[in-house]
Amino acid sequence: MINQRILSHFHESAELKIQSASALARPIEQAVELMFGALSNGNKILACGNGGSAADCQHFSAQLVGRFERERLPLPVMALTTDTSILTAIGNDYSYQEIFSKQVQAYGQPGDVLLALSTSGNSANVNAAIEAALERDMRVVALTGKSGGTTAKLLTDADVHICVPHDRTARIQEVHLLTIHCLCDGIDVALFGGDENE
């Protein structure tokens, strides 16, 4: 029985990725254009999310500050999920809902991009960060799932919404990770063109 459950996870994940490809290719392309435009103008990307989405933010940041698949100069990307003193101070002195928005207010500048991850689209602290980013004339790339939740209602026409068409959190997160790799690859291609071996 356990073997069948494992096979079922693999099949469901693969099927969702194939199903998502055509639906998400254009918004992912728009997100790459938005992020590359910001980086090429001397701006930065801030990223936030909770739990597995926090790990995804850090993974994204690591691949752009370090490298994805080719050597290049470090790019200015910061995960807002890593400073435990900031997170616990804000959570304790204000509220958990403000742990990201206060950092956006501190670090965000007009022209920067906020990468906001929430599988449900209803994470209060992520949505507060989106509101803070929009107030600072930043653009937002939101990765969500299900119906997009409250996040979908906050975004403007200048922002990008990448909504995975599924209800299961694990499957949404798996597509988010693939999306992050597409973003990193797209930024590298925008910087250097084509494959490294071309």
Automatic annotation (TrEMBL):
Biological role stated in the UniProt entry: Catalyzes the isomerization of sedoheptulose 7-phosphate in D-glycero-D-manno-heptose 7-phosphate.
A molecular function (GO) term: isomerase activity
Name of the protein this chain belongs to: Phosphoheptose isomerase
Record's cofactor remark: Binds 1 zinc ion per subunit.
HAMAP family: GmhA
Record-linked SUPFAM superfamilies: SIS domain
Pathway: Carbohydrate biosynthesis; D-glycero-D-manno-heptose 7-phosphate biosynthesis; D-glycero-alpha-D-manno-heptose 7-phosphate and D-glycero-beta-D-manno-heptose 7-phosphate from sedoheptulose 7-phosphate: step 1/1
PANTHER family registered for this protein in UniProt: DNAA INITIATOR-ASSOCIATING PROTEIN DIAA (PTHR30390:SF6), SEDOHEPTULOSE 7-PHOSPHATE ISOMERASE / DNAA INITIATOR-ASSOCIATING FACTOR FOR REPLICATION INITIATION (PTHR30390)
UniProt keyword Metal-binding present: yes
Entry cofactors: Zn(2+)
Binding site for substrate: N50, G51, G52, Q63, N92, D93, S118, T119, S120, S123, Q173
Subunit structure: Homotetramer.
Residue sites binding Zn(2+) per the record: H59, Q63, Q173, H181
EC number of this enzyme: 5.3.1.28
Keyword terms: Carbohydrate metabolism, Cytoplasm, Isomerase, Metal-binding, Zinc
Similarity field: Belongs to the SIS family. GmhA subfamily.
Misc note: The reaction produces a racemic mixture of D-glycero-alpha-D-manno-heptose 7-phosphate and D-glycero-beta-D-manno-heptose 7-phosphate.
Organism: Herminiimonas contaminans
